[in-house]
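Re: the request from the purification team.
They wanted to know what the chain is likely to look like in 3D before they choose a buffer screen. I agreed to run a prediction and write the result into the notebook, where they can find it.
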Amino acid sequence: MNKHHFVFLVKKETVVPQSLDETGAGEIIRTLLLQNFSVSHLHVMAESNKVALENFKRMNKLYAGAKEVVIY
């Protein structure tokens, strides 16, 4: 299964994973930004939205105060 690059849009307790490889990703991100979401500093490579969100939750706990985290 191919991995996709995911970014996360956050508003209070709501986290929306968004694959940058998805057609229309730019418009989805733009729409969420206009709804006062912000882009998280955490990005992941994952097979699906579900896996991406699980990884985000795990990394968010581990690296909550970090300005940048790069994982290869």
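For the purification team: The helical segments are 25-34, 49-62.
Please add any questions underneath this entry.
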